[in-house]
Amino acid sequence: MKCVFKELGRYKKELLLIVLTVLGTTLSALGLPSLLMRLIDVAIPNEDMAMVLRVGGFMIALVIFGLLCGVATSRLSATVSMGVGRNLRSKIFEKVQYFSQTEIDRFSASSLITRTNNDISQVQVFLNQCLRIAVQAPIMCVCGVVLAISSSPQLSGVLVISIPLMAIVLVAIAKIAVPLSTKIQVKMDRINLVMREKLTGVRVIRAFGTVDFESQKFEAINRDYQKTNKKLQRTTNLVMPVLFIILPLTAALVMLMAANQSLNKGIDYTIGEVMAIIQYIMQIMMAVIMLTMVFVMLPRASTAAARAKEVLDTEPSIKNKENTKDNTQKRGYLTFKNVSFTYPGADVPAIKGLSFEAKPGETTAIIGGTGMGKSTVVNLIPRLYDVTEGQVLVDDVDVRDYDMEVLRNKIGFVPQKAVLFAGTIDSNIQFGDRNADEDRIEEAVKIAQSYDFVMKKDGGFNAPISQGGTNCSGGQRQRLAIARAIVRKPEIYVFDDSFSALDFKTDKSLRQALSKETEDATVVIVAQRISTIIDADRIIVIENGQVAGMGTHKELLETCDVYKEIVDSQMSKEEK
Amino acid sequence: MIKKKKTSTQKGTYKRLFSYMKPYRGKLILAVILIMLANIAYALAPLFMGNATNFLALVLENGRAAQAGADFLMFLALMGGAYGLNSVFSYIGTSLIVSVTENTIYDLRKKVDYKLSKLPLNYYDTNSYGDILSRITNDVDTVSSSLQQSIYQILNAFFTIVIILIIMLNISGVLTFVGLAAIPVALLVASKIAKKSKAKFDAQQKKTGELNGFVEEYYSGHNVVTVFGREDTVIDEFETTNEDLYEASKEGQFLSGTLMPIMQNTTNLGYALVCVVGAIIAILGGLSIGMIQSFTLYLRQFSQPLTQVMQITNIIQSTGSAAARIFEFLDEEEEVPDTENPQFPKELKGQVTFDHIRFGYLPHQTLIHDLDIKIGAGEKTAIVGPTGAGKTTLINLIMRFYDVRSGGIKIDGVDIRDMERKRLREIFGMVLQDTWLYNGTIMENIRYGKLSATDEEVMEAAKKARADAFIRTLPGGYNFVLQEGASNIAQGQRQLLTIARAMLNNPPILILDEATSSVDTRTEVMIQEAMTEMMKGKTSFVIAHRLSTIKDAENILYMQDGDILEVGNHEELMAKDGLYAKLYNSQFSDND
Questions:
Q1: Tens of pLDDT along A29-77?
Q2: FRET label pair with A569: which of A53, A86, A515, B284, CA 20 to 30 Å apart?
Q3: Mutation site for A-interface testing, chosen from B110, B269, B275, B307 by largest number of A Cβ within 10 Å
Q4: Is A215 in Cβ contact with B260 (below 8 Å)?
Q5: Interface subset of B 325-344, CB within 8 angstroms of A
Q6: Would the pLDDT of A112 be above 60?
Q7: Average of per-residue pLDDT values in chain B
Q8: Against a cut of 0.90, is the pTM above it?
Q9: CA distance B519 to chain A (A)
């Protein structure tokens, strides 16, 4: 909750006002019965009409005051709770934007999404419900205690019995309910998991004719959930009935004590005093109940806040150095010098001892099986990860010495998963270069072999792209992602398996069009298909993170067994 | 065919929701009675307390008035009894309601689950996964959590209001009128505010959705943002949406937060007026002090149930729309039931006949125009074509996930529509690229192919599928628990498991989808071997990517744009020099 309190600190003025307005509400609520007492004790016995009207007028003024305070509290607490949520959310989002891939991997994207959205919402809901209570309950408690003791210290002694009693009962119920509610969460997740699986596996389930098996499985967890939930509900439902026994018992006890003390000890009480004390004691106990509500809600909110804080406390592992370098003399040179890379927490390096040098106009291809470390190699170029050993140099400067913006401006990166963002085709291409004009965008789209399908879409370049680009086919997404990289006019092109969703013909014509554009740039291609890389100047075969061979297609066919195996698996003998 | 009913009115939705409680109406009625009794006891308690107070006053004044002391104790006991009964009744009442609502939700879930197994595949293919999922999970959760809460609160509020009203009228009609005069006005104001705050909450809901979508999108595409160095623009855009969300939710929370002070202070206003009027009447000699006091106590209890009702209306609305979405799902058209007199081939050989079939997913569209081919037992049929050519359509038809529009498919002479679906599907072994495995052990997942299989049989199948070796390297071996989507093993391994699963049943006809690029070379070879072993002597349909498979096949079906355009074997089709030949040449010729 620390980060929440820190954010609350920015709302000092509002918080102070909440204390004041809540105090106003409390005073207004407490004032009414005491004014009534005055009517009963003084005005009615004296038959003083003028006083009745005067006190009445005062009461109405007090109600209006209470209303204003109540509305103001609501306004203030909405501002504070929603504001704290907004600020935390902004902070997290900003933080995540500057995370390196290592941090994203560590948390996983889906967990970060939950932390930014749901967890913060939890905190907001908690604040909104509890700010008022957290302020009001102590005020009520203090007012109640002061008033009760000042009326009669002896009778107030009842509190010493009833408050601990109440606390014991509440804690006992919580002891049963909290583990049950954790269990419920697990069972709920289980139900939803099975539902999800049924949805994704509908073909398999029907194909294997296991409908009965599935419904028995569901029946069991459904029944289990129902039973546990009943137990939980029955436990938490105990709270109110038990309290409604303790509260009146306390009142009865006060009355009994008053009678007893009056009879046996000669202490005199007026009936007004006894009634007042009962009211005050009720007030205190209500405040305690309200506070327990806060404590019931607190664990959930504080878990959420802790999860958010974990993100805020994480420093990105890849940052700019203090003195950054640049080299404006050279353009399009890429060097790997004995590069090794180990993923955090892994025992075995994903890349080991990789060295090569690429000049402008050259194409370097990387090939190998899945999980062999091909993507890892290219991720090191724009510093999505930093090398563990060795150096990656762009234009003879270590990538870690660049200002990251400068470095990344030199690179046109097409990731393995062709991600598009909600917006238009235009806005997605412009994501590559915010200054690109229409001509440049059109040019890039043409090179990426996308012009035809873009023009066929409603609105052409202004055609909407839905979230994740789901209204484009895989191949279209890939081509737009390529256009996005082209529009930058980068020095180094990186294609991470970016041609896999294209048919052979499009693949070929795209590479032809691209070759003109990349005359003075370096191209790095990760590929699965031999046909995509057959003409590369340099093919690097990666096997288990190590270089199994390097050279042209022809050379490798002679020298590299792994390469031959890959070729064999893709073409039958007579095709070679 | 059942026509799709639209639950158009909200009223209809609630009525239907309540009809689900019918089996438990005995309990529900008992709960209503108990809650009513609890409320009566609760309302009587202050009366006893008032009397106890009066006698206590006597005791305090006169010292040893024995009779007063006894009366005081009696009323005190009555008060305790009344509160005690209130607690006991209301606890039993709520427990009964818990039982009714939990049973109802259980039934509802079961119905939803049953429906899932009855819907035609078409429903799953045409509706978005997210939408169906949200109906069968989130919406059911919403109904479940609000049902129990709101039923008790409504009942309780209703009885409290009625009983207190009766008691107050009994004490003084004039004071009741004075005390409650402001309430209709307050209700009017409150309902206006509630309406306004609902609009704000809807806006908040919308903005939350937008923001969640935005966050999801840019977190999943984080590396793109990074490599293009566009963090600042993305953050700016986020701030705008976040600010909008803040504004909407702040207003919504503020407005709904005013409901409580408004209702409370309206009753307080009534309280003040009652004090004044009561005092005047008392001075004029029409009312005792004790009566004023207990009247004001009742009046103060009035505001709570009113505020409660105001707050519940919001919950009820969201329950209504969630329930409506569930009912819409439950009303979806179901699969055509199995025929009354099912038939089955006397001897299963695996001969498949497509007899002039015509098919399209949508009524106005025809994909397959006229497929007429006889596939002999033990033959291999390769389905080829460019990506997106609709190669799974054929599988959908053979396994009767969809029915043909005209013509018919026969297996060993029996039309598949004359068979029970379950028995028909047992004839097939299916291995698709979309490898569905579920959260459970590997043993359980393979056994899914034949639920009665022993552990030994499962392991035997795994060995044949070349999966045994990798399974043994996993912690726990066959007891290794797969996560949802089997995300804790590699794609190629998943495929080996699905092969083992299909092999377990030893079915006479196979439907296979060959692995493509997503699997590394070595695993690919293993998958290939496993599939070849499985196909020995069986009729098989293969969505083929590999030349060797295609060349070996007795039949090749060339598909494009959803239709089967060419049929024949490799030599025949090459000689024809048509579409198949063109595809073949474009894919393999330039790989010199």
A1: 878 877 887 887 788 788 888 888 898 899 999 999 999 999 999 999 9
A2: A515
A3: B275
A4: no
A5: none
A6: yes
A7: 84
A8: no
A9: 6
Per the prediction, chain A carries an average pLDDT of 86
Nearest Cβ partner for B231 among A97, A270, A571: A97
Domain contains A183: no
Per-residue pLDDT reduced to its tens digit, A169-202: 888 888 888 788 778 877 887 888 888 888 888 8
Q: Distance from CA of residue B55 to its chain's centroid?
A: 60
pLDDT tens track for B499-553: 899 888 888 899 888 765 456 666 777 778 888 888 888 899 988 777 777 888 8
Range of the domain at A391: 334-575
Which member of A49, A70, A382 has the closest CB to residue B265? A70
For A:157-216, CB contacts with B below 8 A are 188, 191-211, 213-215
A101 in B contact zone (CB under 8 Å): yes
| Number of domains observed in the structure of chain A | 2
Report CA-CA distances (Å) from B39 to A245, A346, B35, B90, B157. Answer: 14, 65, 6, 8, 9
Is the CB of B117 inside 8 Å of chain A's CB atoms?
A: yes
DSSP state of A210: -
A406 & A541 share domain: yes
Please indicate whether, in this complex, the C-beta atoms of B227 and A197 are within 8 angstroms of each other: no
- Distance of residue B52 Cα from the nearest chain A Cα, in angstroms: 9
3-state DSSP helix/strand/coil % of chain A, to nearest 5: 65, 10, 20
Closest CA to B89 of B24, B150, B42, B25: B42
Question: Does A39 lie in the same domain as A100?
Answer: yes
pLDDT at A115: 85
Position with higher pLDDT, B362 vs A552: A552
The answer to whether the CB atoms of B272 and A56 lie below 8 A apart is yes
The Cα–Cα gap between A431 and A481 comes to: 10
Q: Indicate if the pLDDT at residue B69 is higher than 60.
A: yes
Question: ipTM value of the model?
Answer: 0.82
Same domain, A307 and A341: no
Both tokens of residue A261?
A: 């003390």
Q: Residue A189, Cβ neighbours under 10 Å: how many?
A: 10
Whether A251 has its CB under 8 Å from any CB of chain B: the answer is yes
B109 interfaces chain A, CB cutoff of 8 Å? yes
* % chain A with pLDDT above 70: 97
Helical (H) or strand (E) element with A223: helix A211-236
**What is the C-alpha separation between A241 and A27, in angstroms, rounded?**
29
One domain for residues A307 and A429:
no
Q: Is A319 on the interface with B (CB under 8 A)?
A: no
Q: How far is B106 from chain A (nearest CA, A)?
A: 7
Smallest CA-to-CA distance from A160 within A151, A148, A175 is with A148
Residue B387, chain A, CB below 8 Å: the answer is yes
Is A512 inside a domain boundary? yes
Could you tell me if B485 lies within 8 Å of chain A, comparing CB atoms? yes
Q: Tell me the pLDDT tens digit for each residue of B241-256.
A: 999 999 999 998 898 8
**Rounded CA gap, A168 and A174, in Å?**
10
Residue A490's pLDDT is 92
What residues pair up with B186 in beta bridges, in sequence order? Answer: none
* B378–chain A nearest CA distance, Å: 20
**Is A117 a domain residue?**
yes
Let me know if residue A173 belongs to a domain: no
